[in-house]
User: What shape does this take?
Amino acid sequence: MNFHSMSAAELGRVLRQREVSSLELTEHFLARIEGSGARLNAFVTVTAERAREDARRADAELAAGRGGPLTGVPIAHKDIFCTAGIRTTCSSRMLANFVSPYDATVVERFTAAGTVLLGKTNMDEFAMGSSNETSHFGPVRNPWDESRVPGGSSGGSAAAVAAGLAPAATGTDTGGSIRQPAALTGLTGIKPTYGRVSRYGMIAFASSLDQAGVLARSAEDAALLLAAMSGFDPRDSTSVEQPVPDYRAGLEAPLAGLRLGVIREFFGEGLEAGTGAAVLAALDEFRRLGAEVVEVSLPALPLSVPTYYVVAPAECSSNLSRFDGVRFGHRCESPRDLYDLYTRSRGEGFGDEVKRRIMTGTYVLSAGYYDAYYLKAQKVRSLIAADFQRAFEGVDLLFGPTAPTPAFGIGEKVDDPVTMYLNDIYTIGANLAGLPALSAPCGLVDGLPVGYQLIGPQFSESRLLAATHAYQRETDWHRRLPPAWA
Amino acid sequence: MTLTRHDVENIARLARLQIREDQLEPFAGSLSRIIDFVEQLGPAATDDVEPMAHPLQGMVQRLRQDRVDADDPRDLYQQNAPEVAAGLYLVPRVIE
Assistant: This one.
């Protein structure tokens, strides 16, 4: 069997039917990761021994007739999730030797669901980037064209799943870091509602925007994984105490009658023509499946990127002040005094993009500038959230592209941060308003995948997944594999 | 808005970040571009708009009972510390 082209749901089935053992599956994926997969640089740490232990435990469960839909299924975690006893680097020199004393809630829940941990995936340093080029451990390559980026910041997770090095992987999304790489590598990626998944043990970037989610091959897989990781956690003060619906059962909800709002502002200047055409073809498919399509306007939405580049750096400058060279993380050699210890440890430990964001945040929060930048951005954030709220009075879901172009070349956009930031022009709005959003593949442009995006009201994950499941039953874009990795 | 080398030095000092001499100019350039870019927020009409700090409107801060619910993990945590002695984190002398 060609395990690496199968979905997590299918793998779960063949495991339960005992057609393959979890250990065999695990060896299959480890061989791919350590073999040709190594050239993608998708993993920071491969946890082969841990994977084999997890697999043996899963096989024992399965032999006893126990086990759920994910028991024995190998997965990978973005290296932003703390894993007890395994180093957690956030792809930063600052944490290159950090071994977490505890598991993130997300990690704990996947262990409880019986999954096998293959390793920790590469990412933009501290999740700050849209191309995976800011990683201390080097860029990740896109399996569809290895001279191109996989997107970011969850670029390692995206490349790993797209190349069949793992059936599915976790990611985090602060401004598009799950959806944009999913679009650029042909995957289904979902960022749930803010508060749906615990942030405990997930290294913080911008606390009012960060949310964990998954990168997978289909809406069905995304539903399975999201179900495993969602739910209330008393250890995260913004975790929402609300029951988690059965996402998998919800997949079968009919699409007919769904009111889909096409976001006018997402189809203007800046959208590459081929990408726009593929996304509009997906819209036709939704129409054919019975969705009612209307155009909607969200006039404040074009201000999302500048709003984000005040709010996110402000929160990051505060969150990253914990890296002081005293309690954990990088410490400089022979500090002269405490100031020297702080500045040199941080100067050596952080890369340029992280420094740039910390300084942007420090600037917009500093006395005399706070009102003009930070307070102003928080007010515009209200306008954007209100636009979404108004739109959802008339439609069930919003529709548009995920990213303005297919994957770009490694090194192509590193010189100008603002050009890089504009990759997230369509994804940031959902983070600012705390809404769930999903990207799914809907075409190839010159051999490179592009994705559509659905955005829903808070806690409408089921609706996003069901609509995409209906689309994926009629189309096969999500089944395409990068030719070199099939 | 154009930030100078001196501005970058000042911000870096506030942020406790050492910036190499040869990087002051490039950072002044890229930070200026970012600040110029976010200045497009200026004209947005926000007179009677409440600032939004958090996406979960109406959520109240949850509190828990103030009681011990875990063993003291100090030794475990200090395994990641660059320098400790007798359970204390060591830093350069602050008071002469």
Notes: The helical segments of chain B are 5-14, 24-38, 74-78. Strands of chain B lie at 84-85, 88-89. The longest helix of chain B spans residues 24-38. The mean pLDDT of chain B is 93.
